[in-house]
Every structure is written in C-alpha cells, then in structure tokens.
C-alpha cells in the first residue's frame, strides 16, 4: 500500500487539473475503486467465512433435497434402465395398431434379463401406476417365458402369455414412460390421468382426492391464520402496553407452549376435547348438553383447527408484539389530543401501523399451517386431514415417492405463489419480523 | 407578578386555572405537590425545570392524559379535570412530534379536521393554509420520514394549530433539533403565537429557550413551582437559591446573617469575609443564607472604597469564549467564582495566578434561602 511519499505528493494537484473525466485515484496512485475493493476484501471474506457453515448446511440439507424432490416428481427412468432394448425399439412404433415383431422380441429379451437380475419389480410397479394390472402382466409374462427360446413369433408367445400385450394402450404407456421423464405424477396429484388414447382427462369422480384436499388444506390454514390473528392481536397489544414486569410474566405464558413438546400439547387437546374429555364433561355437568349428545370435537376438522390454532398462536403474537412495541404511545395520545375518540384513534392511527406485524405473523402462521403434519395426523381423524398427511402416506406406506414429490412440489409452488401475491398486495416492506 | 394588562378588572377571568393540583402515581410520593396557575388568554407560559420535576405531568393533566389526584383544572371557566382528552379541543405538540408515519403530511394535517366531520373542501382549504403558514406548501405529499427534523417539527406545529384550538400545549418540542435550528424554531413558534393570538403552555428544561419565548415562566423543582414570573423578574430577582442557580449563571456564597435591616443584610462567610447583601429570602439574624451574584455584575479592580463589597481574587483560569472571556477566580474560599468580561481590546487579559480585587453593589448581591 505504501508508495514513496514524494511521488504521491504531486498526484492530487495533477488530477485536480486533469478534469472530472479521469478516474479518481487514491494517494498512492491506484484507482480509488481498486483501493476500496481491496480495503473491503477482508471484511467480505470474514462475512463469507462466518456464513459458510450455514450455507453448506443449507445446501446439503435444504437446497439439494428440494432439488431432488423436484426431479423425483418428474423422473421416470424405470422403463429405460430395466427394459432398455424395448425402450429403444419402441421408438419406431407410430402408435397405430400393435408394434411389430422386433419390439416384442426386445421386450422378451429384457424380461428374461430382468428376471435374471431380479429387478423387474420396480418397472412392474411403476407401470402399474399408469395401467392397472401391469404388475401381474409383467411378472407373470416373465415367469412364463423363462424357458422359451427363439419361438416362431414373440408377439404370439407374449400375447399368449398375457392378453394385455395385445392392447395398444399398454404399448403406448410403455412408449410414453420410456422418455425418461413423466407428467403422470403431477397429473395424479391434480386428480387427472392419461386415458387410453394418451390424452389428459380428469379422474373419475370417485377417485378425485388431492385437489379437494388441497383446497381444504388451504381454507383450513387461512381459517387458522385468521383465528390466530383474532386471538393474538389483543394479547400482543396487552404485552406491548403493560409495564415491564407484568409484560415479561405474560410473555413467559405466551412462550410456555414452546417449552413443551408438540406431542404433549397435541395429546392434551385430545384429553380436553374427546367425547369423554374434560370439556364435554363440564358441559354435561352444567347441563348445557345432554349426556347422549356429547359434542364430537376431536378427530375431525374442529380438532385440527383448535389444536393448530393453539400451537401456532405464538408465531402470530411475537411479530405483532415486536411491531407494537416499537409504536410510541404518543401516536395514540396525539390522535386523542386532536379530537379522535379512543376507537377512531385505534382504527386510523394504531391499527395501520401494526399491519406489517399482522402481515409477518399471518404469513408465518399460514406457511407453517399449510405444511403441518403431526397435529392433523393425531387429532384430524378422517375429515381434519391435511394434504401433508397424504404426502407422508405416499412416502411411507404406498412408497409412491414420485407422487409424494409431485404433491409436495405443488404445495411448495402454491406457497411461493401466495407469497408473491401477498407481496404484490401488501409489499415486502410491510413485513416486519422484529 | 401580574401582567401589566388592561385596567378593566371585570374581564379578569383567567383562561386556564390550576387550582391546588396534586398528582401521585404510586400513592407514596407526590410528583406534583401543589400547583396553582392563573393564565390569561393569549399568554405564553413556560413550565421550566429539571427532568422529574413534575412539569410534564402538569402538561399531561392539562391535555387530559393524566387525572389529578387532587385539585381542579379549569379551561375558560369550565372545569375539565375529568374530561377525556378528545373533548378538550386543546392542540398539542409532542416531544418526538408523533407524526403519523403511515400518512402523508397533508393527511396528518387533515386528521384533526376529519375527526371533527368538517366538509372535505373546507379541509383541503385549511390544510393548504396550514402548510403555507409553516412554509411547507410543496411537501404535502411527502411522508414524515422523508422530511428533515426541522420540517417534521413544523408539520407537528401546523397539525396542532390546524383545527384552531384556543390553547396549544408543547412538550419539549425542540429537544431533538440541533442548536441553530432550535433557535430558528424558537422564533418561528414565538411569531406564530403572536400572530395567531393563541395561548400556549410550553414545557422545556432549556432555560434559554424559556427566557426567549415566554411571557411568564414557572420554574419547577421537586413537584413545586419555585417561582412564577416574567423572564426578566426571574433572572434579575430570583426568589430562592434554586431559581438563582437554575436560571442563568450565578456565583454563590454561603454564610451566616450577622445583622439584618429592611434593605441590607450583613453576612459572614466561612472564610471570615464580610459581605453586604440585599435581603430577599432570609430567615433572620443568625440564620444561614445563600448569596447570589450574577457574573456580569462583578467589577474588576474597583477603586478602593467605591463599592461596599471589595474582595481579593486569585485568577485560576481564563477561558476564551469568542465574544467574551470567562475568568474563574478564587474569592473568599469559593473556587468557582466566575466573571464574564467582553472580548475587547480595551480589556486587560489576566493570567492564571494573578491576584486582583473584585467588587459589587449591595443590590446585585441577593441573600436567599440556604
């Protein structure tokens, strides 16, 4: 950095003469921008090093899984990898009638190969999602042709082994799924499917599940958010206006739920709300309801809404509190001194200033609610289930990970879309988390 | 202490009256002990005092945000002690302006008119006039955060005046401004007060602000008004040691009263020196007293015998203040005896260690409570 002093001495006067166009230089003759970059480099490096562990963690535990989930929701390489020659041969087929002998021969070859490698199960179940009965078609055919060598016509042999091989629809599924990617998970997640001709149609009425559930999850989350707002706003107001000592006591009560296990909190609601539970017993004892007509408040929507509102309430109160705390009481006083009644002062002066807190709390609660799993699973019963419970079901029970990934991706997309809409309506500067 | 107002005693109905008002928050200590005030229409009264002296509490009781525990407050003859703030029709400027951040300047000014259900066209008109009154015509569409401190201050004043209240309260409105701006705003507020003829109650802890702006000043300490008088009275004729030391600069001596007549008290200091002083607030012979002497009333090197009080003074320090010199002496055991001399070529500058004599008249040296 240090350059001989005499030279640098002459510089400033030189440059003041040479006009405004010349780039500014530091005392040592380097361009000012370079010097600045150099001076800031260390700080930047330190900042990067400080966040590096977290970035790495996020990359491994968050970005990568999301990416993997997104790929899995469209990935379909079973036909390609397990029935490779068939996948190649079928490209020549135009979709009219049945494919020719070479395709059948390729399939027979792949099936035998697969039987030997014991990996037909994957492709069988994959194709079974697309065309029901394909599992037994593939495994059965593979078993039947194990000992058949070079027959006159593989087509006849295979059709003989299973009549599905005479159905052009089966072949169009195989051709479609040999592309390596598929839309069928997303179609399934949106209650749609490919019909026999390969065009996209809605599922029959009885099999439509996910769209309705998605909508239900959405409105229940909105309702829970709204209830949290209704219950949380007065509490936050009290917290912000009470003197220090009582406020910190109240704050403890607000934070208390965070110190108890989620499971404990949820099961407590079961104890309170169930038909032989505390609340029903009290109502019966008071004579409000009959012993025979005890209220069903758990294992349905009510249970989910009550328990989740309770669990998510602190996430509404905390941002509201931090915003309210920063609103000086002199605003309300000023409004009152100018002739506004207490209510008008609140509505026109106080409330608008809490909007950023409402926004932050609402978005926090809503995003947490829409992806909530454990509470709906425990207290939701049949009607109080969320879309997340189906994601878990497909992850753990049906093992249809592609579908689980597709539903999860749609959920992610929905949350992002809602956030963008919200941002457009309210503005991100109206979002204050503390 | 009376204002030199008209001779018509029939119109001597006070505009604002505090009648033996007391206030306590915890039931143990009185924040305001016994506040009495009679304020005339159009008067500018300042409540001056150190923080915690009860001045802001009095203002808040006037505004209606606090209720007195005892006593009565009257506005224009009507008791308002328990009237809620929004029914009082008093304008108020807050310490940090309290401009509503989510509204524009014009909306802020319109607010007090809107809550009074004034027709829209009238509101627009009045807002425009209020903005031009504080010279902010082109700032109506800005948010308060986009204005400088001085501009925010002006908006706050305009907002307190826009609904034409007969009385405006100001709670340390200039505290957040830098010195130059503060002085400029002092004059602007003073001129608004004179032009509009409204009454003002102003709270500050800055004595120079109080002296320049007020018709009368109530000096608060410890919940009690120590003196309520015009600025000149307060400075020239402080009634007790607190006022003397709080308003302006003051050289104080503590001593015992040896003899006492109507016009003169002879006081012996701890150093043994005798001083002749004007008795203002002394108990009597043998009592302790605080002598108060303004630095600008001290004569340097007076002719011997020309003044009743002449003492030896040793120069401790000379501080250059630009327009004047502050010289710190040790006089009769008081090491903080300050003398101010104008910085002119005629005045001799002393050096630390010089010994000279200082003197003052009887009337300039006031004997106050100990």
UniProtKB/TrEMBL annotation, chain B:
SMART domains: AAA (SM00382). PROSITE patterns: ABC_TRANSPORTER_1, ABC_TRANSPORTER_2. It is an enzyme of class 7 (translocase). The keyword ATP-binding applies. The keyword Ribosomal protein does not apply. GO terms for cellular component: ATP-binding cassette (ABC) transporter complex. Residues 16-247 form the ABC transporter domain. Its EC number is 7.6.2.11. It catalyses: ATP + H2O + polyamine-[polyamine-binding protein]Side 1 = ADP + phosphate + polyamineSide 2 + [polyamine-binding protein]Side 1. NCBIfam families: potA. Belongs to the ABC transporter superfamily. Spermidine/putrescine importer (TC 3.A.1.11.1) family. Part of the ABC transporter complex PotABCD involved in spermidine/putrescine import. Responsible for energy coupling to the transport system. The complex is composed of two ATP-binding proteins (PotA), two transmembrane proteins (PotB and PotC) and a solute-binding protein (PotD). This is Spermidine/putrescine import ATP-binding protein PotA. It comes from Nitrincola lacisaponensis.
